[in-house]
């Protein structure tokens, strides 16, 4: 009897109730921040889900001139670019996951936002680094990418997919050099997704992040906005985060919108 009573008293004293005086204000702040981040991911994912095919172009001058903010998706063949685009947009075949890597030499544009009032574009750029591609095609790739990344006025962000097991290749670094001046002055933001992270164990993931960070360190200036994240389409790792980042680039006001202020904005103006 006594023993059980003592035992229960001890249990009670060593297990504070979750909303007792021991629960710290910082926990509430953290919970609020987590809830806001989750809400922002939800808004971002419903926005990316609106993506639909707009047009395709094999040269820069065939792309529509537009004022809409444009985010480009780049990466070497087989890096998981098509899968990442399909996962981010929650669509099965938006970006055709090609069985013949290196064949698609076109820039495919997708439109996002309301049907009659698109508010951003995604550009799926040709994959590169496929060994069987002839020298002529490689030079053409170089020109298309360099022109696009250096000149496309509406470009506001680049999402670079890098296979987390391989890290940056020479061609990835070359591609970054095309856009480095615009990243350095903050005109274009960069998010590197280390893809297929489900194939790494924890130590390998840490190492992949560290070596990618070392490469990206060269790009970083006071103005630069450069992010890096592990990404797995298979395990859905980093999907919501990536969507939030891209949404924040393209539509900063909508992305940051708290539900209450959203309701206020949606309200009818006073007569
Ligand atoms: N395990 C795993 N495999 C993936 C993931 N994403 C893509 N892949 C595989 O990687 C290969 C290349 O993907 P794909 O999206 O076509 O690459 P792309 O050439 O860059 O467009 C395919 O066999 C995919 O199934 C992932 O998150 N996890
Ligand atoms: Mg592809």
Tell me about this structure.
This protein is of the alpha/beta class and 271 residues long. It has nine helices and seven strands. The protein has a single domain (41-250), classed as P-loop containing nucleotide triphosphate hydrolases (Rossmann fold). The protein has a seven-stranded mixed beta sheet with strand order 1-3-4-2-5-6-7, sandwiched between helices. Helix 2 crosses helix 7 (239-250) and helix 4 runs parallel beside helix 5. The model is unreliable at 1-17 and 260-271 (pLDDT under 50). Bound molecules: guanosine-5'-diphosphate and magnesium ion. Guanosine-5'-diphosphate is lined by residues 75, 77-83, 97, 101, 127, 195-196, 198-199, 232-234.
What are the defining features of this structure?
single chain, 271 residues, alpha/beta, Rossmann fold, 7-stranded mixed β-sheet, 9 helices, disordered C terminus, binds guanosine-5'-diphosphate, binds magnesium ion
Q: What is the CA-based Rg, rounded?
A: 23 Å
Instruction: Give the number of domains.
Output: 1
What is the typical, i.e. mean, pLDDT? 86
CATH class: Alpha Beta
- Percent helix, as a range, is 40-55%
Secondary structure class reads: alpha/beta
Q: Looking at the structure, what is the overall shape?
A: globular
CATH superfamily: P-loop containing nucleotide triphosphate hydrolases
Please name the CATH topology. Rossmann fold
Q: What compounds are bound to the protein?
A: guanosine-5'-diphosphate, magnesium ion
